[in-house]
Amino acid sequence: MWGTVVLRKIGPDRKMATLILLNLRSALGKVDRLRIACEFSTMLCIKHFVLLVAAWQCSAAASLSLANLARDVERVESIRHIKNIQKQLSQLAQFGEWQAIGQLFSQNGTFVWGNITVHGACALEQWLRTDSGAMDGVQTDSLNTLIADNPVISLSTDGSSANGRWNGIWFQGDGKGGSRIQGGIYENQYTLTEKGWRISLMRYYVMYEGTYEDGWKNVDARGIPIIPYHFTANNSGLPIPPATEEPPPINCTIAQLEARINRLNDENAARNLMHAQGYYVDRRMWTDVVDLHTDNTSVKITNEAAYTGKVGVRKVLERMGPENLTQGINNDHPIFDMIVQVHENGREAIARGIEIAMLGDTNTREASWEFNVFRNHLVKEDGIWKVQNVGITPLVVADYYQGWGSGGLKAPNTYIPPFTNVTHSPAGLRMRHSGSTNSTLEDLERRLRRSAAYDGAENQSHAYGYFLDDLQAAEMGALFAKKGHKASPFAGFFQTPERITQANIALYGTNRSALRSSISFHWRPQPVILVSDDGRSATVRARLLQPSTSISKDGSFNSAMYHDQVVLEDGKWRLWSVTIDEFYWQSSSWKEGWANAKPRNGTAPDPEPAGWTKRYPPDITLADVGERESTFRGGSGQFIEWPEIQRMWFQYRNPVSGRTPEWFWPGCVPCQVRRDWSLEANGYQEPATVESPV
Fold it and tell me: What is the pTM assigned to this prediction?
């Protein structure tokens, strides 16, 4: 309400008082109805009145700032809630919880799967139950792992709806020899209801499918079209657009907002902890894994004995093999659909997610799959998040060459690890607080920016993958900052969006059909994102998991690693630096898998740089970077190719112990050669190499 001013008996300074009071209306804005009764008879009264107006102005500004902060906190929470709702769907599907999945949808929500459309929770439950049949995760030896990852989330300006794009793949088996794999892209819509965020439209575009025995191929023999995008390169780096309306009245205190911001930052740290642990497990870096645990830690594998203490953790790890990878060993455990839920006390958290292990030994030609659920208990000790209890539930362990259709090599699982509760509105969860705080609004806004940076960086990282999948050169280039740079595979680094775009065109050309015969997808799951103190820059380490599909050739997987940086430029997140280290392992084919690779002839010459670079040379070649890129194709040293074990570089230290990894390269990859390309040289902070305090 606009304030109302009542003047009574204004004396000789009536003109001045009237001017002040007229300005008061504009200064206070939409706060509370204000009635002022003033009596002026002397200049002294005017002085007191001016002081009173100044106090009211400060109070109004503070109220508006607090209301703005409350709205901004809720919108960052909304992005997290939307992601968790989608991830919860995947977790529920593993155990055939069709009715519970229906509760994730809004009233009369719509579900579109290929050519099938259903409306409402009951119809959705019936379709899922019928379509899955015996491949529901409930029947003995059945498997039903439905993955959704790589989200790009775009919130509406009023904060009441959102769109989301996800990569998806569905692994199914009935335990009796039947199997199915299908994959594609989700373009979903979400709405904010009285109960919190819900899915209003789930639209899945099936792009490839097949059985385990035969492998998958394109669903359409003519080729795969480009799936419509809900975002562009201009707005993908803006998951939360600027609000266009004044914030609603606040119903919380600054201490409550601080507790909620702390929770968001704790989620980031806990998520980084789990993702970092996953990478250490991949490389059998057992000492680093043990470092992440508390002294009173434990590991429990369903239907097996529990292991306690750090010694127990080490015993479990060494069941996979000795520390460090040796030639021909593949030990990848990609993490998907992980939900982190921080307890209201701010000192405990649950991390529940899906792990799909891809294991193999080229020396023996043995390989296997493992589909696991993990539910871990984390605690914060002296401000650092650590792993206290690990719970692993193996669903299916299967020989690669036999597949999971018959249930695998272990006894059927009957245990369902408890789900996290993500259906409530995060804003409704009141974190414990002292009732007061010494934090300033300015500092709380900074801390919130650090949390929002995680989602902004993740959005831009995944948008890059989608545009690259579709060979949308101009859109992909436009994701970069004005001085951003990107590594083109086996060639070198190109700087500026224009040169990045032209390099992509030089590599792939422009004469492309709207229907593509094949795609190598650029999934970028399991990010470790470290944000600068001011929340304006971040470092991103993400896995490249590359499923491929085509018209005639069975699909397969490859693996590599991204080392990226992002910055906040002109109010939007933009890619600053992208480096791809590839490949760590590759599948020879679907039939042969990753364990059938043969060692490279040591006397063979290293591959030549890509031919197109002669027509369009990079600003810096991989060889120019020196030791950091020396063992990758196009580098300056001896090329290492799977089944040899490629060096794996990290740009962060152990998040608990601070131990520096053997292969450590902080910051962007080419910046030690081109210092003028670094963040600091361009007015940005370099993010810390360990999780920094809020």
Answer: 0.90
